[in-house]
Specification:
Helix content: 55-70%
Structural class: alpha/beta
Radius of gyration: 39 Å
Number of helices: 41
Mean pLDDT: 81
Shape: elongated
Number of strands: 15
Largest sheet: 5 strands, parallel
Strand order of the largest sheet: 2-5-6-1-7
Length: 891
C-alpha cells in the first residue's frame, strides 16, 4: 500500500467512524423500515449475527451510503439537514465509493487523485460545522506523515460489490485503460438499454476488447446504484484448446457451449452459495434474477456455427443480458466495433507503459514512432516496448510491422529472451498457473536460475503475476497464450513438462491413496497433509521411505541435497523442516536436526509430530527439562486422548514425560501427578507402573536407618504392581520395572534393621507374580534372582519350597529344547529388512515378519545368533519355513 493510499484509508476510516458517531448521538431514532429490512436480509444471508433493534448493530452493518441516508433522515427536522445533504453530495460527486473499493482490493489500482479528492472533502468547512473532529485530526496527522493504519478487518471489508466472479487482476492494470473513454461510455449505454439483450464488442486481436469489457464490469459491480438494475455478473472465457494427458486437444463448438453452461453453473454456485448441478436448474431458479453474462473470445463458437450460439442464447432467462467479445462479427446483437487507439492515446500508452517498467524514458519522438509503427495496437505497443527494454535498438524493434503486428513484436521479443525464460513460458503454458516451486520442479532447475528468468519475464507483458495464499503465481497473458499455441517455441520442453506433470500427478495420487488407505493421524511420523504442494509431497514420501531403510547412506545424502536446494521454495511449510530433521537424525547431525525442528515449530507451534520429535531429541541429548516442556505442551494441546485413533500417541507422550521425570529424579512430582492413576481406565496400567517405579526410586533417597520409609515405599510399589498385574495383565514394561523392586527387596533383606514380618510379606507378593513375570520378561537372569531370593535367611521364606523349573535361562531352554507354554525358543539365522529366518534346537526353520514381532528390543537392533521366543502356527507342508503368530526377544 503506497503512502497516498495509506493516507486515504486513514481519513476515510475517520469519516466512517465520525458519521457513525453522528448517527448514534441521536437518541430518538426514526429509520426507514425498508432500509432496515434490506440491511437485515443482507446480514442474515451472509450468516452474520444481527439485531435490527440495536442501533449499534445497524450502524456497524451499514455501508457508507446507507449511513448518509440514515443521517439525512434523522436530521430532517433540524439545522444539520442541509449540511449532511451537502456532505453527501460531495461524496457522491467525487465518487468516494471508488476510493473505498480501491482501498479494499489490494490488487486494484489506486490512483493518486483519489487522495486529493478525499483531502478536498476533509478540509471543507462542513466537517467542522458538523463536529466531525476525528476527520480533522486524521487529515492533519496524515498530511504531516504521522500515519496510523485502520484495523485490518476494515481494510479487508468490501464496501459495495454486486456478486460476481470477475478476476481481481487484469493485464492493463499497470497503465490503466487509455484512450477508450468514448467506447466505454457507448458500451455502458448499450448494456443499460432495456430493449437490448445481447451486446457484442468486436475487434482484431490485441486491440483491447477484454480489457475494455473487464474495466467496465469492474466499475459496474462496485457502483452502488447498479443494484437497481443488476443482481450479479458472470464472466466466462472460452478457450480454443484443452490440455489433456495426450496433448493439446482442439475443442468442438458443441463441447465449448457445454463448457460455457457448466461454467455458468459453477459461477452461480460460487457467487450465490448454491449447489445446482445442471444449467437447466440455473435457468429455472434464476429466471427472475437480473444477471449480466460476459462471454470472452466467442469466436471459438462462431467460427463453427452461429446457430449454436443463437440456440444457447435463446435458452437464457429473459432478464439476463449478454456481453460478448469476439474477433469476428456476431449476428443478432447490438455491436460496438473497437478500433486501434488514436495517435495521442497510442503515444500516452507507450510512455506510461515504459514508465511503469521503471526504466529510463525514451525521447518523445520515439513514442510517436513506436505507436505509429504498431498501428496503435495496444498489445503490439507493449511488446515493442518490452523488446526495446531488453536491449534491441528502436529501428529494429519497429520495422517490418505492416502485417500481424502483434505476432511480429511477439516473435522478436521471444528471440531476445534467455533460453530458461522461454522454457518457463512453455511450462506455464502447460501448467496454466505456475509458482517458482513448480517451475523449479518441472524444469529441474535451481531457484536462482528460475528467479532470474522470472525477473526478466516480469519486465514484459508475456506473463501476469498474481498472488494466492501469499505465494506469487504466474500465468500467460491470454493473447500470448494464443500466440504460443500457434507458434510453439520449444515443443521438447513442453512435452517434457507435460510428461513430468503427468508423472507427478500419478505419484501424488498414489501418495494420497496410501495416506487415505493407512489413515495416518496428524501426529504420525509419516503423515502428509493433503494441502502440501505436490513437489513437496513427493520429497516427503521419499524421505519417509529412506529413513526406514537400514544401512546405505548415499541415498540419504542425495535427499539432503535436494531438500537443501528446495528450502527457499518450501520454507513456509512445517513438514519440510520435519522431513529435514528426520534425515539429519539418520545422519547423526544433532545440531542440524535441532535447528530444523525449531524452524518447523516456528511455522506451526501446535504440530504434534514436531513437538514429539523435539521432545525425543532433547531426551536423547540428556536435556530432560526442555524435553519435558515439549511433552507438557502436547498435553496442554489435548493430545492425551482415549479414542482408538490417538490412544497410542497419548501413551508415547505419557511414557516420554514420566521417563524424563524419572531421569531427572523428580520422583515426588510423579507421585503427585499419578495420585488418581486408578480413575483413568485407558491409562491406568501405564500411570500405575510409573507410580510404582517412582516409589521404588524414592528408596535411593533414604539412609539405611530410615527402614520404615524404605518399607513403606517397597510396600506401595508392590501393591501397585500387584493391582496392575491383576487387572491389566503382565506387560513387558511392567514386568521389567517389577524386577527392579524385587532386587530392592533383596538389598533390603541385608539391612540389619529390617522387619522380618514385613520382609516375609514382600516375598509372598513376589512369589505370587514371579512365574508370570519371568515367562513374559525374558531379557533377564532369572536363575540368579531366584538363587538370591532362596538365600534370604529368614524363617518361612516362601522361596525355600519354590520349584526351580521354569527358571532356566533362555539359552539353556533353547539347547534343552524346552517349551514355555505355547512358546518355543529359536535362534536367528538371517535377517532381511522386514523379515528373518530362525531355527530351533532340531534345526527346524521358522519365518518371522516384523509385523509379528512384539519384543522389547527394537526390530532393527536384532542380530544373527540372538534368541527369540516364538508362538508357531500349524506347520504347512507347502512352506519351507513355519510361520509364527507372535515373537518376542530373549537376550
Amino acid at each position: 500500500m503506497n503512502i497516498l493510499q495509506r493516507k486515504s484509508s486513514m481519513v476515510l476510516y475517520a469519516f466512517e467512524q465520525s458519521i457513525g458517531d453522528f448517527v448514534l448521538n441521536y437518541k430518538d431514532l426514526n429509520i426507514d423500515n425498508a432500509l432496515i429490512e434490506d440491511i437485515t436480509e443482507r446480514e442474515i444471508s451472509r450468516g452474520r449475527s444481527f439485531d435490527p433493534n440495536q442501533i449499534k448493530d445497524v450502524v456497524e452493518a451499514t455501508y457508507l451510503g446507507e449511513l448518509f441516508q440514515i443521517a439525512i433522515d434523522l436530521t430532517s427536522n433540524d439545522s444539520f439537514h442541509d449540511l449532511v445533504k451537502y456532505l453527501y453530495s460531495l461524496f457522491h460527486d467525487f465518487e468516494i465509493h471508488l476510493v473505498r473499493n480501491a482501498i479494499s482490493h489490494p490488487n486494484r489500482q489506486f490512483l493518486d487523485f483519489f487522495w486529493y479528492r478525499l483531502a478536498a472533502i476533509a478540509t471543507d468547512p462542513v466537517v467542522d460545522i458538523l463536529g466531525l473532529v476525528k476527520v480533522k485530526k486524521a487529515f492533519i496527522s496524515a498530511n504531516e506523515g504521522m500515519l496510523d493504519d485502520p484495523p485490518e478487518e476494515w481494510l479487508n471489508k468490501v464496501v459495495w460489490e454486486i456478486p460476481n466472479n470477475l478476476p481481481s487482476t487484469f493485464e492493463h492494470a499497470v497503465t490503466g485503460l487509455i484512450g477508450r473513454n468514448k467506447e466505454r461510455k457507448q458500451l455502458e449505454t448499450y448494456i443499460s438499454q432495456p430493449r437490448v439483450s445481447t451486446v457484442a464488442l468486436v475487434a482484431p486481436g490485441g486491440i483491447g476488447k477484454t480489457a475494455l469489457a473487464l474495466d467496465l464490469l469492474h466499475y459496474i459491480v462496485h457502483r452502488p446504484t447498479a443494484v437497481n438494475s443488476l443482481d450479479g455478473v458472470i464472466f466466462v472465457t472460452l478457450k480454443t484448446e484443452k490440455l489433456t494427458a495426450l496433448g493439446i486437444q482442439q475443442l468442438t463448438a458443441v463441447q465449448t457451449i457445454s463448457e460455457v453452461k457448466n461454467k455458468i453453473v459453477e459461477s452461480i454456485n460460487n457467487i450465490f452459495d448454491e449447489d445446482l448441478k445442471r444449467f437447466e436448474e440455473v435457468a429455472l431458479l434464476y429466471d427472475q434474477k437480473r444477471i449480466l453474462l460476459c462471454i470472452d473470445n466467442l469466436e471459438t463458437v462462431l467460427r463453427e456455427e452461429q446457430a449454436l450460439f443463437d440456440d444457447f442464447n435463446n435458452t437464457l432467462p429473459g432478464g439476463w443480458k449478454v456481453l460478448i467479445t469476439s474477433r469476428i462479427t456476431v449476428e443478432n446483437t447490438k455491436t460496438l466495433s473497437l478500433h486501434p487507439l488514436d495517435q495521442k492515446s497510442g503515444e500516452i500508452l507507450a510512455r506510461k507503459y515504459q514508465e511503469s517498467r521503471g526504466i529510463n524514458t525514451l525521447e518523445n519522438n520515439d513514442y510517436e514512432k513506436i505507436s505509429k509503427a504498431c498501428f496503435f495496437n495496444p498489445l503490439a505497443i507493449r511488446l515493442t516496448i518490452d523488446l526495446i527494454n531488453l536491449g534491441r535498438d528502436i529501428p529494429t524493434s519497429i520495422s517490418e510491422a505492416q502485417k500481424n503486428i502483434a505476432e511480429f513484436s511477439y516473435n522478436n521479443l521471444i528471440e531476445a529472451l534467455k533460453p530458461t525464460s522461454i522454457q518457463i513460458l512453455e511450462a506455464i503454458f502447460v501448467e496454466n498457473v505456475s509458482t517458482r516451486a513448480s517451475l523449479c520442479h518441472v524444469l529441474e532447475k535451481d531457484l536462482d536460475e528460475i528467479s532470474d528468468s522470472v525477473g526478466e519475464l516480469s519486465r514484459t507483458s508475456l506473463i501476469v503475476k498474481s498472488s494466492q495464499k501469499d505465494i506469487e503465481t504466474y500465468s500467460l497473458n491470454d493473447s500470448i497464450k494464443d500466440l504460443l499455441l500457434l507458434d510453439p517455441k520449444n515443443l521438447e520442453v513442453r512435452n517434457k513438462v507435460q510428461d513430468k506433470l503427468l508423472e507427478q500427478k500419478n505419484q501424488v495420487r498414489e501418495i494420497d491413496f496410501h495416506q487415505e488407505k493407512r489413515q495416518y493421524p496428524i501426529w504420525h511420523r509419516d503423515n502428509i497433509p493433503l494441502d502440501t504442494p505436490e513437489g513437496l509431497k513427493i520429497l516427503v514420501k521419499n524421505v519417509n521411505m529412506a529413513v526406514r531403510r537400514r544401512g546405505e547412506t548415499s541415498s540419504l545424502s542425495e535427499l539432503i541435497r535436494k531438500l537443501r536446494d528446495a528450502e527457499n521454495i518450501y520454507k513456509t511449510y512445517a513438514i519440510y523442516y520435519k522431513s529435514l530433521a528426520k534425515l539429519l537424525d539418520k545422519l547423526s547431525d544433532s545440531h542440524g536436526q535441532k535447528d530444523a525442528l525449531l524452524k518447523g515449530l516456528a511455522i506451526d507451534d501446535t504440530n504434534p509430530n514436531i513437538l514429539y520429535m523435539l521432545a525425543r531429541f532433547y531426551a536423547d541429548q540428556g536435556d530432560y527439562e526442555p524435553s519435558t516442556k515439549q511433552y507438557q505442551r502436547l498435553m496442554e494441546l489435548g493430545w492425551i486422548q482415549s479414542n482408538e485413533e490417538n490412544i497410542e500417541f497419548s501413551r508415547t507422550i505419557y511414557n516420554g514425560y514420566f521417563l524424563n521425570l524419572l531421569y531427572s529424579k523428580e520422583y515426588q512430582r510423579i507421585l503427585d501427578e499419578t495420585k488418581k492413576w486408578k480413575d483413568d481406565e485407558s491409562f491406568s496400567p501405564l500411570l500405575g507402573v510409573y507410580r510404582a517405579t517412582a516409589w521404588k526410586r524414592t528408596i535411593e533417597l533414604y539412609e539405611v536407618e530410615e527402614s520404615e520409609k524404605i518399607e513403606s515405599a517397597i510396600n506401595s510399589s508392590l501393591s501397585i504392581f500387584d493391582e496392575v498385574f491383576r487387572k491389566y495383565g503382565y506387560s513387558v514394561e511392567a514386568c521389567k520395572q517389577a524386577t527392579k523392586v524385587f532386587e530392592e527387596i533383596i538389598f533390603y533383606a541385608n539391612n540389619p534393621l529390617r522387619a522380618e514380618d514385613k520382609l516375609i510379606g514382600f516375598l509372598q507378593k513376589v512369589k505370587k507374580n514371579i512365574s508370570q513375570i519371568s515367562s513374559t520378561y525374558l531379557d533377564y537372569d532369572w536363575s540368579g534372582l531366584y538363587k538370591k531370593l532362596c538365600s534370604i535367611q529368614i524363617p518361612e521364606n516362601p522361596f525355600y519350597s519354590f520349584s526351580k523349573s521354569g527358571l532356566k535361562s533362555p539359552s539353556q531352554m533353547y539347547f534343552d529344547g524346552l517349551k514355555e507354554g505355547d512358546f518355543i525358543f529359536v535362534k536367528i539365522e538371517s535377517i532381511r529388512n522386514n523379515y528373518l529366518f530362525s531355527i530351533d534346537h532340531n534345526q527346524t526353520q521358522y519365518f518371522v515378519h516384523s509385523n509379528q514381532y512384539k519384543g522389547d528390543i527394537n526390530w532393527y537392533n536384532l542380530k544373527e545368533g540372538e534368541l527369540l521366543k516364538v508362538h508357531p502356527l500349524p506347520a504347512d507342508s507347502s512352506q519351507a519355513a513355519i510361520k509364527v503368530k507372535a515373537a518376542f526377544s530373549c537376550e
